[in-house]
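Summary of Year 1 activities. Much of the first year was spent building the evaluation harness for sequence design. The harness presents a backbone, in tokenized form, and records the residue chosen at every position. We chose the following record to illustrate the format because it has been used consistently in internal testing since the harness was completed.
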């Protein structure tokens, strides 16, 4: 039998999905499972989105569409990002993809030759590593542990950019930590970036509308407008509008980059489907009640999770101010045992497995995000499940010996 390409050997299925699949299997076997594992919003888009999709179906032309995205969709996106202070982008500066993940994939192919370096923080969103490995880039990691609130410092970034990586990939608000950089922190990092003109900067900011506590969302381009010629801003409908399965992602950046993405699209996907385009325009341009209401709900759920974690001795958890994740350092539990058989908890994977087996609560081990001292709690589950899930988590922790 002929061999698969080497790049497939470098690609791994997402570790997040592995936990979610196990939780799903246990549920199908009749177990009472509460899932804190998967990062999908637990709500659907507004009626106006479905109405727009139905209307598009009724008027369907069945034709191929624009590689970059239809003009109406690009215009809706440009108007949308102007609301967060990213002004002055034109159609030539923006492009779409089948979700932000696809845009990141396209960008890595468009910006990185084999062996070029991409740098990003640890903890990272799992797919960054897999995508970088598929395109055969070198990965330079910036460790950002709980002791520094999971955020990089300007000095750390300076040291990393001094090595002249081709791409710096930044994520704010963060998956998996939920941490959000303040205006001052963004300005300090933007000052560092300004010193290194040979590095592209991708800001994966798909949770930009999910920021709590009045902190606000800030971008390097707000801090230093001249960085616009190499900062590429990413956005997505998946989380903000409850539309992960519709698969729509965007970028705004330099013309050359947007054009390259349109070229990649023309070879990979041709276009975003017409019905999806209509739904996306409706989500971007219609009433914005969903993100507003959901932020209040998410901030309250975040507080519930933090209150439970605060009762567990030795667990360290920086306070997230965005997205819908909490990322506690649970390494104090390592070396302990659980249950009548004395099941050993040597690491984050053992912790998550034992928690799922004993209490039916699914969390993602931190090692999926490069930080094996922690685990990720995604709190988008239906509200009535949150308190019992947290109670089970607490019981599990307190039963450790
Ligand atoms: N970037 C981050 C930080 C994410 O958390 C995710 C999804 O979980 C994505 C990108 C991908 O989003 P999309 O659904 O638009 O592909």
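For this record, the design step produced the sequence shown next.
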């Amino acid at each position: 039998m002929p061999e698969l390409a080497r790049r497939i050997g470098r690609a791994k299925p997402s570790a997040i999905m592995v936990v979610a699949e196990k939780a799903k299997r246990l549920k199908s076997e009749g177990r009472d499972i509460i899932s804190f594992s998967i990062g999908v919003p637990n709500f659907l888009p507004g009626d106006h989105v479905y109405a727009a999709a139905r209307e598009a179906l009724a008027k369907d032309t069945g034709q191929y569409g624009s590689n970059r995205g239809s003009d109406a969709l690009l215009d809706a996106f440009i108007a949308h990002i102007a609301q967060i202070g990213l002004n002055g982008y034109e159609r030539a500066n923006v492009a779409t993809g089948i979700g932000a993940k696809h845009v990141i994939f396209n960008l890595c192919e468009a910006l990185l030759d084999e062996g070029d370096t991409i740098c990003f923080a640890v903890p990272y969103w799992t797919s960054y590593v897999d995508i970088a490995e598929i395109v055969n880039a070198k990965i330079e990691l910036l460790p950002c542990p709980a002791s520094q609130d999971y955020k990089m410092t300007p000095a750390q970034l300076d040291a990393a950019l001094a090595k002249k990586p081709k791409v710096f990939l930044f994520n704010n608000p963060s998956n998996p930590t939920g941490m959000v950089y303040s205006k001052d922190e963004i300005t300090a990092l933007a000052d560092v970036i300004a010193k290194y003109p040979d590095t592209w900067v991708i800001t994966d900011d798909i949770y930009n509308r999910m920021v709590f506590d009045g902190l606000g969302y800030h971008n390097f381009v707000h801090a230093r407008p001249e960085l616009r010629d190499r900062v590429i801003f990413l956005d997505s409908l998946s989380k903000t509008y409850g539309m992960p399965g519709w698969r729509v992602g965007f970028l705004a950046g330099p013309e050359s980059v947007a054009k390259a993405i349109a070229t990649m699209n023309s070879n990979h996907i041709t276009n975003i489907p017409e019905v999806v385009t209509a739904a996306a325009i409706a989500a971007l341009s219609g009433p914005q009640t969903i993100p507003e209401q959901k932020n209040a709900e998410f901030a309250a759920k975040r507080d519930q999770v933090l209150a439970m974690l605060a009762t567990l001795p030795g667990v360290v958890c920086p306070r997230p101010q965005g997205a819908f994740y909490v990322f506690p350092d649970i390494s104090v539990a390592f070396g302990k045992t659980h249950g009548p058989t004395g099941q050993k908890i040597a690491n984050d994977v053992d912790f998550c497995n034992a928690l799922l087996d004993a209490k039916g609560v699914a969390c993602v081990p931190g090692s999926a995000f490069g930080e094996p001292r922690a685990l990720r709690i995604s709190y988008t589950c239906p509200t009535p499940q949150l308190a019992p899930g947290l109670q089970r988590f607490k019981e599990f922790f307190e039963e450790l010996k």
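Residues 6-44+290-399 form a domain with the Aspartate Aminotransferase, domain 1 fold (CATH 3.90.1150.10). Quantitative recovery figures across the full test set are reported in Table 2.
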